[in-house]
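## tool: complex_structure
## caller: assistant
## args:
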Amino acid sequence: MTVPGLRERKKQRTRDALVRVALELFTTQGFDRTTVDEIADAVDVSQRTFFRYFATKEDVAFAVQQMVEERFVRALAERPAEEGPLDAMRNAVLGSWDTIGEAIVEVVPVDLHLRTYQMIESTPALLAAHLRRSTEMEETLAQLIAEREGVDVDEDPRPRIAVAAFSGVMRVTGQLWGRSENPTLESIRALTEHYLDHLAPALEPHWRS
Amino acid sequence: MTVPGLRERKKQRTRDALVRVALELFTTQGFDRTTVDEIADAVDVSQRTFFRYFATKEDVAFAVQQMVEERFVRALAERPAEEGPLDAMRNAVLGSWDTIGEAIVEVVPVDLHLRTYQMIESTPALLAAHLRRSTEMEETLAQLIAEREGVDVDEDPRPRIAVAAFSGVMRVTGQLWGRSENPTLESIRALTEHYLDHLAPALEPHWRS
DNA sequence: TTGTCAATTGTCAGTGACTGACACTAGCCT
DNA sequence: AGGCTAGTGTCAGTCACTGACAATTGACAA
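## result:
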């Protein structure tokens, strides 16, 4: 763990600045009404440099999201083996929400991240990218679950199915939260818990009130 | 049901031609290696005209998919009221697969459609668009299910959850089928059925072999 | 400290998706 | 036949993104 050289630190600063400025502009003006030139100019680098840090304009919007997802995956990997698949995933997300603050502030304020998430959900191009990224993570999750349970992910359909169902619920809550008038950390946590509680009942062959 | 005028027929022919040529080019050369100019030139219209028919280059790739989805929604709406939510959706898709042929041939051969679906699954930009379109359909489905069961879609979380879980399984099967070496109508049908059978077991708190 | 190497960056030119404006052509309708 | 209007082509422009090349600047050995 040596201190990275000047070159590395400079790169990190540029990258962080690009993320912060981009998210600030995206959340205030909107994603489509923000050009890459604007972002680059604000950080005082060339447009070409922007694209050396981020392959696409969309990518910069997911820089923080990226960290959150990695965090969740790690949390899942650390869940005790006794927990069933669904419980493990449930506890991993909820646990992630609880400690999200500390991890994020280093790059952007939590508040900005929440606004960014809302923007992603309400911007068609970003929502599409978000969903695709999610499916990639789902493959990782399925692998993890399969290992935990000691089954072959290509023989037993249950890992992918469980992950798909779980992710489906997460997606729904994410969307509902994005539209809500009070988008706080607490509200998404509560919503997620509430919806996960209803996963099994929703799949009953018949619903009775 | 009067015969549409010459103007309308001409428009329809141009549109169909654009779809056919586009899908042919996409599936042979790849989506990214096909330019809009190429498609327009092949149909002998200007690029500007292409964009009057399709808002984006992606849209033309989903022209057939669009029909398939509408078909599925209609099939679900016509399911007998006694069927539970999951059964209704299951029967609606499987029924759709069975009669898909007749509906599609009018515009493109079934074979081209299957290849198109594979291309969508393997092209990142299209996969993203596909997933986003799916979430839009899911909202429609949730509404339908809620009506069938006589519950309020904004009060009772079950409709959206059931749809999300179901769609999650459909997405997984779609992806696995896209990667398979033998992508036929029969194989996707069988795969779908097999996976849907395992939805409930996959959500059990504990898996026992 | 200095000189060399390699990583970063800026500039420039080009491609391709997409849009607005405007003129033109061809069905449609009286 | 002739006017109306939907549909089309042309043109110019914006913006995301890329390859090539030259200039700069840390890193590191002599």
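## assistant note: Residues 7, 10-11, 45-49, 52 of chain B lie near DNA strand D (CB under 10 Å from a C1'). The interface with chain A takes residues 84-87, 124, 127-129, 131-132, 135, 149, 151, 157-162, 164-165, 167-169, 171-172, 175-176, 194-195, 198-207, 209 of chain B (CB under 8 Å). Handing back to user.
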